[in-house]
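Journal club prep — side note

Before the paper discussion, L.F. wants everyone to see what a predicted structure for a comparable chain looks like in token form. Sequence:
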Amino acid sequence: MAVNTVGDFIKSVFPTLINKKKSVFSALFANDSKTGTIETIFNELEETRKVWEIDSANIYNQTGEQLEKTLALFSVLERVNSDTDHTILARLRLLFYRNGDKVWGDKWNILNLFKTFFNSENVWLINNTDDENLLINGDFENQDAWVLTDGASYEREARFEGTTGILFNSSGTLEQTVNVNAKTVYFLHFFLKGNVRVKITDNNGRYWIPEGYTGAWGNTEHWTSFASNDWCNRSMFFINDSRVSSVTVTFGYETGHFGFVDYVRLNKKTKASTFSLIAVFEGTTTDDTANLAPGTNDPIVAHDYDHMMYGSPGNADATQDAQGVSYLDDENTAAITEDVSPTVHGGNSDVEPMEGYDNMTYLDEQKALAPDSPVGYDGHKTVDYEKMSYFDNAFLFGRGGLKELYQGIMDIVQPAGVTSFIELLTRETDVQ
């Protein structure tokens, strides 16, 4: 039998004793109409292969329907609502990233993978973590829950992420007490720059002494010293016996040294192996836009509250008099009804139709500066939303969505039986 088509080839591999005209064979394998199930699949595959050869053999240059067919054939990634062709291909690259790594999915490969994709060295992989931190305000943003003594302070310069960290300037301590379970292993994680000491005390007044094979609780005060020239994750574990119901975690200074501490977590060790991938980005976050910009070209302009002004009844704009700004005249206030907006201006009528947006925020024909507006401009600053919330030029909006996207990648590349967590943090930039 001459083999000219896919259907001919399928028929040729079966012995002549099989009747290839039978309905079951024709429907399942091949027929003269080229509608057999197996024949149809191979024909579609061949058409896709031809398109690859002619149009674009490189998947990273494909778009539209061609890309969708390619992804459907071999990709385990699912396209989410915020995905563009660019973003899903960027995630796909992670699955095939090697860069000379001999082992796929180990700590070093995962670190290199995400450092390359984020184009940042500010990526850490930390073992024995959990998604529940037993310490309150471990990022020091709310400035509560911890007890500080003289010499330890909340400082912007000491931040690893967010806006605030803890500074030890050759003096001071920082501590917090939490309830824990007896006969359980716990891990203390924190980010450090400089020199600090750590002390773990239980409810019986004993100290954790991490010496020997596993360590033990003892009656002699014990501090464990840590040091790093640049930001680095540090951790220590302690094992509770039957007498432990709470512990006090204390950070202290090293004589003659400064120390920065931030992003402190206390996790109960789970039965399964776990690790967290933490990536920190320089940028500015706002309540309105949830932007995440990894480079130095963050388009969001810092708020300049010094240039805010207020609309108030009278002949001049009040600048800082919060007691008498932006109120309606009590004696001449017209009824506020649907489709009518109250505005503040001189005269007897304090309401204006909604159509008059251009005439709102006026005061006796003097323009009141809108919040965040440059001096002399009556309106809000315009923001180029096309440049906001970018991530290596991949337009992925919102930190929550980002976390889900890369957690999906981590679930694929992590070793079997290991639980992983993704944490994407933002370190607020200094305003010049």
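L.F.'s comment for the group: Residues 285-305, 307-347, 349-354, 356-400 have pLDDT under 50 and may be disordered. Keep this in mind when we get to the figures.
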